[in-house]
Amino acid sequence: MRDCIALICxxxxxxxxxxxxxxxxxxxxxxxxxxxxxxxxxxxTFHTSIGGYILKRRLCxxxxxxxxxxxxxxxxxxxxxxxxxxxFTRAFKKQFLMAPSSYRKQHGFSELYPRLMIxxxxxxxxxxxxxxTAIGETILASKGTYIICADVDHLxxxxxxxxxxxxxxxxxxxxxRIGKSIRDDMAYFRIGAxxxxxxxxxxxxxxxxGIAKSIISYADTEVSWGGGIFKxxxxxxxxxxxxxxxxxxxxxxxxEQAMLAAKRDRRNSYCII
Length: 273
Hints:
Elements: H1 2-16, H2 24-31, H3 35-46, H4 50-68, H5 73-79, H6 85-96, H7 100-106, E1 116-117, E2 129-130, H8 133-140, E3 146-152, H9 155-161, H10 164-181, E4 187-190, E5 195-199, H11 205-216, E6 223-225, E7 228-230, E8 234-240, H12 248-265, E9 270-272
Parallel strand pairs: 8-9
Antiparallel strand pairs: 1-2, 3-5, 3-8, 4-5, 6-7
Helix pairs in contact: 1-2, 2-3, 5-6, 9-10, 10-11
């Protein structure tokens, strides 16, 4: 339990100080652990380093600012501690697969790497579950419409056979494919290591199927990363939010079951439940 609380404190400190220069020893002090212990615990628990998590979350904050405010790329870079716009652009492009200026024009999605969550009451059983508050509220308010659970096929193999950098590129490319396949008034969220939920806001099954077919059509797209080029596909589950819905998690779970059925079928496909 002590380690669980320490991680909660560490993540809270990082999230509250993303605009500042954060050193590992600062995070460790907030978690009341030694730097070496916290680094080991963080890496073992979340499969990423403290520095890697800070970088990803800071770039998500940058993406949100690119979408929400009319500030220059240079100003955003300086505000987030980058020495110049060039170094910021390189880091941003590596995470989001496009330059900040292009991202601003094309996307309304910033939470590619949402805040990691640990439920203090349930401890380590809730590790790597993201905060579902926003999506839960939206699902409850979207009765009678369709949602889609999209999941990267063979992400573990990509991570193990290529690298985690390649896996990160697959996650970023998944967000791009979804963004290209939905309308401006639709929303999507990353809710797990390789899970995305798309809220279509439509009560016609044909609309949800059209999105799924569009995402499938990108399976032959080549994805570039530091070590080369690869391709990957996405499997999806489609469900309708019940008109008498009481619990958003039940609908999310149903969409995941539909997605798993698509994977059992042949992958790069979708299943409707």
